Amino acid sequence: MKLHKNIIITILLLIAWVLVYMSLEPFSNWLVDQVFGMSAGAKITESVRFFIYDFPKVLLLLILISFAVGIVRSYFTPDKTRKTLAGKRTFTSNVLASALGIVTPFCSCSAIPMFIGFLESGVPLGITFSFLISSPMINEVAVVLLYGMFGWQVALIYILMGLIISISSGWVIGKLKLEKWVEDWVYATQLGEGDNSEEQLTFDDRIKFGYNSMIGIVKKVWLYIAIGIAIGAGMHGYVPAEFLSSFMGKSNWYAVPLATLIGIPLYSNAAGILPIVAVLVEKGAAIGTALSFMMATIALSLPEMIMLRKILKLPLILSFIGIVGVGIMIVGFLFNIII
User: Fold this and answer.
1) What's the pLDDT at 192?
2) Residue 268 confidence (pLDDT)
3) Is residue 253 classed exposed, middle or buried when 0-12, 13-18 and 19+ CB atoms within 10 A define those classes?
């Protein structure tokens, strides 16, 4: 009976979600035009309108998808993920590690403890890198923002390209046999098997897990989303399109490599950087160029490299940056060709 009650509540909340989502655009226009009485077409008006519409839209999408992904995550505990990958050495395992990275709740820095645990438990180096790349790059926040700002086609292509980068980069690193560049203490430490018992969750438990996961994610990223959309709103109203298209348009061959190189030393997550990327594209930047900048910022962040230096030697870190960086640039060029 308790399960039925939670399902009914969830269905009612989904109906409410749909009604609120459908009302966002007319509500934002009414608020800006009627309540605030702002002049239509003015730069400040369009900036305010952009923020009032996009911020709740992104939050609503994030709430829905993070809840659904939270239920999926209830089937993938860190220990189960580690055991699934341990002992596997084929290209298929790189695919599996990349897929597991999508449904595990880690940013680039918080994925590193899992990365260490995988190495210590015997998971091959290339497979661990596939996980390390896909976990921060392809997550529900990025997918939600891409879907909300560019549509499902771009979101789908991004997911596929991100998987290709994580799978191929991990496979190449594995083939190069770079284990000698892992710090000795990592392989000297071996994880125990731990508790082999699996907690049996009911579907009611998984619904609760989904709610808790959704609340936790929204709490962590809502401020980044607000700041990113606020910056994007300002750019939307005030940055001239000609300024950005002059050096980030499709016609400039160097735009993708330059955007990737600029993004590597920076640090942000999808919530903070994607609203800015959306406005860059709106103002004339090629979408592949803008996404290359975003992917480099998310997957090759400076704090991540500093943390990795504790467990990897410099040649391996540079190899990781180079291989993933080349993959990101290839994706950028492909996006510019396709879209």
Assistant:
1) 46
2) 61
3) exposed
Separation in Å, CA 302 to CA 90, 276, 323: 30, 19, 16
The domain spans of the chain are: 1-184+206-339
* Residue 88 backbone dihedrals phi, psi, to 5 degrees: -100, 135
Long-range contacts of 172-180 (CB under 8 A, 24+ apart): 172/126, 172/323, 173/125, 173/126, 173/129, 173/319, 173/320, 173/323, 174/89, 174/94, 174/124, 174/125, 174/126, 174/127, 174/129, 175/126, 176/319, 178/125, 178/315, 178/316, 178/319, 179/125
Instruction: Please name which of 130, 112, 135, 127 lies closest in space to residue 166, comparing C-alpha atoms.
Output: 130
The sign of the CA dihedral 54, 55, 60, 62 is: positive
Angle at the Cα of 287 from the Cα atoms of 234 and 132, rounded to 5 degrees: 100
Residue 19 has phi, psi (to 5 degrees) of -65, -45
3-state secondary structure of 113: helix
**Number of helices (H) and strands (E), helices first, in the chain?**
16, 0
Tell me what the mean pLDDT of segment 206-225 comes to: 80
Q: Is the pLDDT reported for residue 197 higher than 50?
A: no
Q: Alpha helices, DSSP H only, in 31-90?
A: 43-73, 78-85
Apex 229 CA angle, 234 and 298, nearest 5:
120
Under the banding of pLDDT at 50, 70 and 90, the label for residue 273 is confident
| pTM for the predicted model, two decimal places | 0.65
For the ranges 163-167, 230-234, 237-241, which has the lowest average pLDDT? 237-241
- Torsion sign across C-alpha atoms 130, 136, 141, 142: negative
